[in-house]
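Worked example 3 (structure in, sequence out).
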């Protein structure tokens, strides 16, 4: 969604001082899939910061969450299922919205975040 990407760019510019205005920003999803779910916001923001800083995300990280206008990371539906599916796919670190999770004991690092700033720090240090 063009408008959603523009919103994420504006939030990143305001919260992190990143100047995307001098660059062309493109978001592409593999395989021609369409992303209609706001849970992808945090992943798109991570990709934008990664590209801007020319620094890849560390391997094994899965992120999801809706990003609000003030930079808060909002809860999404079925976070436990998303985490379990991620573990089955080989992910070992999860950056997710802050909420209570009903998970069995898992061998994964789960980082709960309330803001986009916390999420970016957890991803890139």
């Amino acid at each position: 969604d063009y408008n959603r990407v523009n919103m994420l760019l504006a939030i990143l510019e305001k919260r992190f001082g990143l100047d995307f205005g001098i660059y062309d920003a493109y978001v592409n999803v593999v395989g021609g899939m369409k992303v209609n779910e706001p849970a992808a916001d945090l992943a798109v923001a991570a990709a934008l910061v990664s590209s801007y800083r020319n620094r890849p995300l560390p391997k094994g990280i899965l992120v999801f969450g809706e990003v609000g206008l003030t930079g808060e990371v909002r809860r999404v539906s079925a976070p436990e299922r998303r985490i379990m599916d991620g573990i089955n796919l080989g992910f070992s670190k999860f950056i997710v919205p802050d909420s209570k999770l009903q998970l069995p004991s898992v061998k994964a690092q789960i980082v709960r975040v309330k803001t986009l700033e916390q999420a970016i720090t957890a991803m890139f240090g």
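Notes: The chain has four helices and five strands. The chain has a mean pLDDT of 92.
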